[in-house]
Amino acid sequence: MMENAWLIPLFPLLSFLILLLFGKRLKEASAYVGILLTLASLVFSILVLFERFSEPTYSTKFDWLTIGDLHLTAGFEVNQLNALMLFIVSLVSFLVHTYSKGYMNGDERFPVFYAYLGLFTFAMLGLVISPNLLQTYIFWELVGVGSFLLIGFYYYKEEAKAAAKKAFIMTRIGDVGLFIGMILLFWETKSFEYSEIFAAVDAGAVSGTMITLTAILIFIGAVGKSGQFPLHTWLPDAMEGPTPVSALIHAATMVAAGVYLVAALFPLFAASKTALLTIAVIGAFTAIFAASIGLVQTDIKRVLAYSTVSQLGYMMLALGSAGYVAGVFHLMTHAFFKALLFLAAGSVIHAVHTQNIEEMGGLWKKLKLTGPLFLIGTLAISGVPGLSGFFSKDEILVAAWEGGHPILFFLALIAAFMTAFYMFRLFFLVFTGEARSEQKHVHESPNNMTYPMILLGVLAVIAGYVNTPWFGSFLGDWLVDGNPALGHGHVEGPIWIMIAATVVSLAGIYFAYLMYRKRSIARNTISGTGDTLHTILLNKYYVDEFYQLTVVAFTKGLSYFLRFIDVFLVEGLVKGVVGIVQGLGRTGSKMQTGQVQTYGAVAFFSLALLVVIFALTGGYLR
Amino acid sequence: MSSVPASAFLALALILFCIGLYGALTKRNTVIVLISIELMLNAVNINLVTFSKYGIAPSITGQVFALFAISVAAAEAAVGLAILISLYRTRKTVNIDEMDTMKN
Amino acid sequence: MNLQSTLSILVFSPLLGIIVLAFLPKQSEKLIKVVGFLATIPALLIALAAYLHFQWGKDLADFAVSKAWIQFRGMGGVPEPFFSVNYELALSGFQLVLVVLTAVVATLSALAAAKFVKKEWKGYFMLFLLLEIGMLGVFTAENLILFFIFFEITLIPTFFLIGKWGYFEKEKAAYSFLIYNGLGSAVLLIVIMILFAKTGTTNIEMLAQIMADPSAPLSGDLKLGLLISLLIAFGVKLPIFPLHSWMLKVHVQAPPSVVMIHSGILLKIGAYGLIRFGMGIFPEQFKTLSILIAILGVINLLYGAFLAFIQTDFKMVLAYSSISHMGIVLIGLAAMNEAGVQGAIFQVISHGLISALLFFLVGVLYERTDTSLIGNLGGIAKGMPIAAGFLLAGAMASLGLPGMSGFVSEFMAFLGLFKELPWIAAVGTIGIIMTAAYLLRAVLGMTYGKSHREFTGVLDLKGVELIPVGVLMLLIVVIGVFPSVLSSPLQTTLETIMLGIGG
């Protein structure tokens, strides 16, 4: 089966091509093309995953591009991480395909939506089976385009247009880091292949500075894709896309690509302490930074978006603290519960036609299925014991503590408190109390929307049990099997960390309960007098404005300066040359009096002059 | 005959040529200019004949060439005078200063 | 099989069309268009056949032809010709891909012309076919004199095509074109004459051999001077900053079908000349100048990108983007290694296809809406989804999206330069971001968002119009996904160049 793993990305590609060419004729039937072909991917992925449990890594490659003596290859590889990612991506993609049939129903560009979904799924699946950096980069960019197209799906909305553009350009800034890092690494190791790069790093063929430099450059790529500070601002804006897209791309798969990249290149990062520390610091900072913004946002999808940024920060923190298993584990559980949360949010939006949580309320009774499912997701992400998020978050906290970063550990703990708080704030505001605006025809979503949520709900509960301190760390042992560079399958942490995490998350929930359910604490307790803190948070620390004032303004200014040069200097130079030539011509033409005798005289005396010169120089002119 | 040296002929030709050149470049009357050009041509003819007699390899070629030049000069004078007459008819002048249509 | 006359037939096949057109009455519009289009087909078929010939493992040297042509005899009736210029055509892998590109773009441009040209079709197509002869000749000529003659043949028809069929300021653009390129070719002629006088041959291969010989009758300084002159001559064509201002006018004023040719092929003659003559004949001196060329390349790349970022006319955006993309060619060349040079060649082909595609779309857009100002358009994805889709895809190709040809070339050019001059290359990567910024700003400004005006009537691409965009897009994707279709013919050329460099 594993030798046929290359087929997995091709099914969605086929879906993309079919829908691109015949979408107009297929109309509503487009959905079935997309769903069936992603189902095929899912089936293959499950088979591959199960086969990988018992068999060794499979990889193959062929020549893609020849440059003189250099042979760049393409191919695919099924190792533990790849097999797991294949499963996650194709599962979420399949569920989102199914869900979208209901959610996007009636949209006039329905086939186009499925075509874009196919393109994205193809790119994402291609990304996770790439055996070399170059191929990773290729799919990395394609994933970006898929995301760009889907964010800008409502192309007639100015906000969607701006968000799509922003997403593409901001991630591209990161991509350039990856691009440079990849090329520098190539000239150091003479290969793009992961295995050969690791071998070269292992053998000490690459200098320490170079490892740190390339690792950090590659990490910049991950920062862009995974919405880490300071390139995070595109991710919340990306919520302009349709909600299923947010679930697929901006929660479960693409944004996790940065984490995947760091995980896939883990032996390289592990070789540089500086690089690891950078990752850990950025991750921890992003986790708390985004969580604090999430505290005050009023758009249901933006709260979830900031929570995604924050959770991705957690994963980075884990990887940066050498907690390979913790990072990947959280990636997996997060994919399930965050996709669930987004799909449930989509279901809410579908029912009430607004995204502003201030206008919702009391939906628990009206959305009998969505409500409990949303609660499951909320409990999972808050790290309540027993659900998947609890186990993975615990692993991360242990990794941060054991990795020797007590400050980062406490930052993560505070972020965990905030997470629990803002997620339950969201839950209480949306589902409890009374409706705060007029809501007509609120009804539960159709089956093809609820079934995917139910499946994700189940996974959000149970997915944690594949790797627990109580029942054994099956996932961890499997992930690091045969690869000592990745660290241990399970790190035993002190029991107080688990208790602290539980206490912190329950405290967050209780606090939210007091503030938004019982209303025994006023909502402006923390910000106190004056609303400065609240305003800063609401405006996301003014990062966007800061970029507008610095980077964008600088670019524009430089452009106008260069246009000044172009118009006045370059064009002026040309005009000057033209002027000189014209002036010479005018002078010459003034000398033409029309008097034959003058011409004759000039001709004669010139000839005489030439003869004199000829005589003086003695013959030939030398 | 042979007592007259070649340099005397050449000097004559030179004087003649210079008179012709002076006339052609300075006189305002076009008829005088044409006559001066004839003078220059004849100076050249004298040179041709002189070198055909006193040159390193004396031969008849120079004299034949002189005859050619005379006949061509005659034709040229005819054409030149014809142009001059037609100009006179349109411009009512033979003053060479006023013949500056080449300027524009 | 004797294939020696194939290249002559290839180059001069459009002549048949010119002759037929000469006998057609001026008014028979349809017939003229059909003949004009069909006359480009033989060259296309021969070019494709030559490509298949290569891919089937046969030797491209079969095509080489050399016949005595002009001979200057020495004084006193010495029997041996003193100087001789031969009629020499040949096809190396590099030339082959350029010939195929030319033939494809020319055919598609003829198709576009049938659509966009509104008057005097007869004159248009006769000049156009003459231009095609010139272009095909430039890429197959094997000696400098012949190259120069074909080079000049491309100038004159282009001048008239711009000056007569262009937009409002067409005359100005045409003169600008002629003066700059005339100066460029004058410099080129001087270089050719000095080489001819000093070595007695104009055959490119022989010149390269003579130059490689240390006992050559040229001093190092003279060679450097000649290379700098070549850099100026072809720098006008490419164009290299600050010799670019003519090209902006041409791109804005010339009719779309001519800009397809101009941006797609004619600019590439500059790159071809730099690689073939600059690098081929003066490899050592090229190495001396490589830092300068790298800096010029980065300047081109960034200068074009930053200026494209603030243009209000989409044509100007594309014009500056051409300058920017030619910077990548220079970057690749400056690397002086396999990756860089191959990247430069890829960029030549890739940009030829992409700019032909984009300028065709601009032509369509202008025809439908009477504007190419970004501010006047907006939301056209609603009325013309297919055109908008291709526009977006073209922009993606142009900004170097993997899976399309632009990425492969950009990647290789930077791969090459990072090995030799990593700092300059690192500065150049800013261009990658800027390219995305200005292209998305322009394309999204036109296709996404709210419509600023109501456009009525049938807007979208339809019928014949789909052929050029479809073919170009297909080629762009094929090269992007299977770059070996392009890289395999280039390997021998690369080996030769690398041998000259000694690296």
Q: Helix and strand layout, with pairings?
A:
The complex is a heterotrimer of chains A (622), B (104) and C (503).
Chain A: H1 7-26, H2 30-54, E1 58-67, E2 70-78, H3 80-103, H4 110-128, H5 133-151, H6 158-189, H7 194-202, H8 208-225, H9 234-237, H10 243-252, H11 254-264, H12 266-270, H13 273-294, H14 300-320, H15 324-352, H16 363-366, H17 370-382, H18 388-402, H19 406-431, H20 447-462, H21 474-480, H22 495-517, H23 532-538, H24 543-591, H25 596-617
Antiparallel strand pairs in A: 1-2
Helix pairs in contact in A: 1-2, 1-4, 2-3, 2-4, 3-4, 3-10, 3-15, 3-20, 4-5, 5-6, 6-8, 8-11, 8-13, 10-15, 11-14, 11-15, 13-14, 13-19, 14-15, 14-18, 14-19, 15-17, 15-18, 15-20, 17-19, 17-20, 18-19, 18-22, 19-22
Chain B: H1 6-26, H2 30-54, H3 61-91
Helix pairs in contact in B: 1-2, 2-3
Chain C: H1 6-22, H2 29-38, H3 41-55, E1 65-73, E2 81-89, H4 93-116, H5 121-140, H6 144-165, H7 170-199, H8 204-212, H9 220-237, H10 245-253, H11 256-281, H12 283-308, H13 314-335, H14 338-369, H15 380-383, H16 385-398, H17 405-420, H18 422-428, H19 430-447, H20 466-481, H21 484-501
Helix pairs in contact in C: 1-2, 1-3, 1-5, 2-4, 2-5, 3-4, 4-5, 4-11, 4-14, 4-21, 5-6, 5-11, 6-7, 7-9, 7-10, 8-11, 9-11, 10-13, 11-12, 11-13, 11-14, 12-13, 12-18, 12-19, 13-14, 13-17, 13-19, 14-16, 14-17, 14-20, 14-21, 16-19, 16-20, 17-18, 17-20
